[in-house]
Amino acid sequence: MKHQTPQQAGPASTKGLHIISLEKRFGQRVLWSQLSVSIRPSEMVAITGPSGSGKSTLLNCIGLLEEPSAGSIEVDGKTITHMGAHRSRLFRRNRLGYLFQDYALIDEANIEDNLTVAMQATQRSKRKHLIGQALERVGLEGRQKEPIYQLSGGEQQRVALARLLVKKPNIILADEPTGALDSANAQMVIDSLRAMAKTGGHCPHRHPRRQHCTSLR
Ligand SMILES: Nc1ncnc2c1ncn2[C@@H]1O[C@H](COP(=O)(O)OP(=O)(O)OP(=O)(O)O)[C@@H](O)[C@H]1O
Ligand SMILES: [Mg+2]
User: Fold this and answer.
1) Where does the record place the ABC transporter domain (predicted)?
2) Which of 1, 30, 31 to mutate to test the pocket of ligand 1 (most atoms within 8 A of CB)?
3) Band of the pLDDT at 10, cuts 50, 70, 90?
């Protein structure tokens, strides 16, 4: 696998997300190897490549849902790979936000409850106000009490985006985040991701309107 790097991993700055000589194989099959990418704070990076080249697998490795076969991933100078179950869970809960194509929402619960799940670190008294603001931002104003299963695919994706807006994670992993959306809503998602990246997150995702591109092929 070849790859391009927005900025080669190196000691210049430990701030940010650093993927260092990462390899993933399934049995004999090597998806990618010697993959090194550094993503600086506030940077938004797109991962491109043909179907099956390992884009989702790379996001899953960064999200600690899968173990790489070799190499390591560092965030702000700390190695996050091979951390053990407890610390991995804390890292996912406190620092990571996901925007995946299947939304990962609780179907039977309503919009408000789905957002509240992501707000464990937020004072209770502030939650309703922040939820209202986030829903307004994604065009779902006043729809707190609607159950997820009644929403269209695009509306569900916008709830998933609102969940990121209320959680404010340091790192956002987005896998085809605009797949189910029309162009206006797709633009809204990209603009929101960009705004979140500017205010402090690192944001590797897969989308053609990219600032930088890491390519798996
Ligand atoms: N647990 C697993 N065991 C074996 N092979 C796997 C496993 N998970 C993923 N793969 C294989 O790894 C390859 C990369 O999968 P991945 O989902 O990362 O691709 P992708 O680049 O995201 O593709 P797409 O653009 O279609 O979403 C695929 O061929 C897939 O079948
Ligand atoms: Mg994929």
Assistant:
1) 17-216
2) 31
3) very low
Q: How far is the centre of ligand 2, averaged over its atoms, from the C-alpha of 175 (Å)?
A: 7
Domains of the chain: 17-215 (3.40.50.300)
Cα-to-centroid distance, 166 and ligand 1 (Å): 30
26 CB less than 6 Å from ligand 1? yes
User: Is the distance from the beta carbon of residue 175 to the nearest atom of ligand 1 less than 6 Å?
Assistant: no
CB 27 within 8 A of CB 39: no
pTM of this structure: 0.83
Q: Which of 205, 179, 136, 189 is nearest to 128 (CA)?
A: 136
Helices (H), the chain: 55-62, 85-95, 111-116, 124-137, 153-167, 183-198
Pocket lining: 31 vs ligand 1, CB cutoff 6 Å: yes
- The string of pLDDT tens digits covering residues 44-74 is 999 999 999 999 999 999 999 999 999 999 9
